Amino acid sequence: EAVFREVVSFTRDPLPARYYDKDTTKPISFYLPSLEELLAWTPDAEDSFNVALEPLKCRQPPLSSQRPRTLLCHDMMGGYLDDKFIQGSVAQNPYCFYHWQCIDIFVYFSHHLVTIPPVGWTNAAHRHGVCVLGTFIAEWKEGGQLCEAFLAGDERSYQAVADQLVLIAQFFRFDGWLINIESSLSLAAVGNVPPFLRYLSTQLCRQVPGGLVLWYDSVVSSGQVKWQNELNEQNRIFFDSCDGFFTNYNWQEEHLDRMVAQAGERRADVYVGVDVFARGNVVGGQFDTHKSLELIRKHGFSAALFAPGWVYECLEKRDFFQNQDKFWGLLGRYLPPHSICSLPFVTSFCLGMGTRRVCYGQEEAVGPWYHPSAQEIQPLFAEQRPEGDGQGWVKTHCCLADAWNGGSSLLLRGVIPPEVGHVAVRLFSLHVLVPPKIFLSMVYKLEGPSDVGVALELTAGDAGSCHVGGISTLSAETSSRHSPRPLRVPPTKLARWVGHCGQQLSGGWVQRCYEVNLQGCVLQDLWVSFSRPPGSREQEAFVCRLGELQVVDANSLLRPLPRVQAVSVSRVRWQRAAPEEEEEQRPARLRLSCALHWSYPLSHVRCFRIHCCRATGSPAEGPPGPEKPALLGLAFVNQYRVVDLAVAAAGPGTDGRVEFLVEPVPREGFLVPKAEWGRAALLYSGPHT
């Protein structure tokens, strides 16, 4: 363990306002409000807090396919709300989006010149295979002057702006830009927009794999701001210069009819705008948004849903989850899901928020929290009803009432009628070429008295010659859906991963582990099946809570796990505790803030859990006794800012001591022993008199 020494000092060391919240000094995501700041920006150490951990996951079909896509444009109350806090916050009832498998592109929108998406959104989206775009917007007279400054001159001016936009996307690891110019332009400036878009698109594609540049329907080729509500000859030159066109919202079906010929083979690159608030003359918004989607899909176009946070902003907060599910459920038939195609596949269904924090069934903290980066892969929220009357049903809901790991779990309610033996629900669409051996795990519990059987099922497709070994087939009619064999005697090298397989765990949870041997197969779907108890002939209602699902390549569990290296403590700041705190607690208290840095290959982790142990002692008394580590928070990069940690003041002749521990959370989803965590100690003494 590294040891760092500090003498307590109360001198102020101001932090850069762009990167830290002025009230809490917590790290925040930021925007660039001016052209001068955009052109002056260069990456520095403070920027690395905002870099996404998650690369854009492989997905099927790829975004480059011509299947019509769904874009979500997140515009909420000016942006940079609770989601700006990179390390999370204690927000009560925050907005949360979780229907990721139904969308393809996420745009973070605000009215600042350069909107850099808060890193929590990028991490959550990329985990689901969803592309993330920032926004470059110029509005009103001021925006027009800004655009003239870089567009009306020679190519060096607009190329400098484009180069900075590419550098920002590359550094922060998001995927491109929505360009929205809503200011009138001179003929010289509008003439340079197409080469600006072409240059930006070309450079972005070179530096950011799969990068996208989209143009919003506002300025026309004459330089005037004239929303067309369609792709036509007045704005086609911009469409031809970038990756896609986002129409304004006040269209009717005749606009779509005309656009079919204009778009030609690029219909999927036309994103027809739908204002969910239903402002203006629109076909359908709010809970009638499906009417707009129906026409858009009928004509083969992509859809751009603007401000679906309407369900949060305008309806009762207490009914948010119900309204969110209703809104997206009405759109379901028009939103084909995409498939995730990489392993390991691990999710605890955590929404990135909760009313308490739980770690593998053990409660760690009570109180509201919100951390978008901590959102795990979310399922296909649906109601599954097999064909035919009286065939039973299964509904899925996210639920904050209980959790196995994180802040929430997946609640499944259903009915098995007397006529059938089981019902099943598809939770995930995958497209994974399966390695020779995989391990699967499911953590669940049944609510209330119930003997319903719970099983994990998978659908395997043929990738050439698919050979199934060691798996019993459910039925002759559905030979591609299989029920895996339970893993009973695990290899000793996998002891950490399978440590609780087949056991009753704390809180009533049960973990089941499975071994699957497949050759030449593509894993396509994950299902959970519920079967009636032996001998039962009555209708069986059930409520089941899923805490975790895992699909892991067996070989990945045999590789050694890296160690956290070189933990350091820097940027130390001290504050005296508030008078009321001094009255409540003895000995005297201090508030410690500092930066932790360490070294670890980020491709191996889901996140880091940061802990501390606090103690004081005198040399005569010997070292202080061990304290149970207290969780401080989660990190998704190799650094963490500790803010206002309460520690005891060091007495005369004594050192105060606080130890920081960095726990890596492997992508395969198991606990790393504490002896293998990274650690650093800070010893501090009172100021010299």
UniProtKB/TrEMBL annotation:
InterPro entries: ENGase, ENGase_C, TIM_ENGase. It is found in: Cytoplasm, Cytosol. It is an enzyme of class 3 (hydrolase). GO terms for cellular component: cytosol. It catalyses: an N(4)-(oligosaccharide-(1->3)-[oligosaccharide-(1->6)]-beta-D-Man-(1->4)-beta-D-GlcNAc-(1->4)-alpha-D-GlcNAc)-L-asparaginyl-[protein] + H2O = an oligosaccharide-(1->3)-[oligosaccharide-(1->6)]-beta-D-Man-(1->4)-D-GlcNAc + N(4)-(N-acetyl-beta-D-glucosaminyl)-L-asparaginyl-[protein]. Its main location: cytoplasm. Belongs to the glycosyl hydrolase 85 family. Endoglycosidase that releases N-glycans from glycoproteins by cleaving the beta-1,4-glycosidic bond in the N,N'-diacetylchitobiose core. Involved in the processing of free oligosaccharides in the cytosol. This is Cytosolic endo-beta-N-acetylglucosaminidase.
